[in-house]
Amino acid sequence: MILLFSFFGLFGQSKKIEIQNTTELKSGQIWKYNTRKGEEKSRVVILKVEDYDNRGKIVHIAVNGLKIKNEHIEGGISKEIGHLPFDKETIIKSLTELESTTENLPDFMDGYLQWKEAFDSEKGGVFTIEVKEAVDFIDKSMNK
Fold it and tell me: 88-130: per-residue pLDDT in tens?
């Protein structure tokens, strides 16, 4: 019986090992990820991957299919976040399955350029928590 549980434990980890070791994150990839409850159709879109000598790889993403309360827009619900910078090793922990690819990326340059200016002046950073936790943080920050 212990052997059986050990087998299932290893089987469950094999996908994460595969993502970490063999999948190169690239602009245009659309990923399923560990979502918040009620947002299971939400997806991560890889916008850009950059390599910084002093920081390693930074993965810029958009997240769609969300349900974030936002009293500042018509309808009161934000369905997407246009730009979030993540540490590569951290984002890999959230990703579960490569769903598809696209060449039609959302417009993220305004958010990216604001982040880049802050990052280059050492006033901005990257997320080192899972995507669903970052989404939750943004949701709570917007609705205090």
Answer: 999 999 999 999 999 999 999 999 999 999 999 999 999 999 9
CA 83 to chain centre: 9
Short-list 64, 134, 75, CA closest to 105: 64
Element (H, E) at 138: helix 131-142
- Tell me the per-residue pLDDT of 20-43, one tens digit each, with 9 for 90 and over: 444 689 999 999 999 999 999 999
Give the contacts of 52 (CB within 8 A, at least 6 positions apart): 58
In this prediction, residues 7-13 reach a mean pLDDT of: 40
Contact 42, 79 (CB under 8 A): no
Closest CA to 57 of 24, 105, 100: 24
Show contacts of 70-79: CB within 8 Å, 24+ apart. Answer: 70/142, 78/142
Residues 6+ apart with CB under 8 A from 103: 28
What is the 3-class SS of 73-132, one letter each residue? Answer: CCCCEEEEEEEEEEEHHHHHHHEEEEEEECCCCCCCHHHHHHHHHHHHCCCCCCECCCHH
Q: Which residue is it, tokens 């390693």?
A: 56
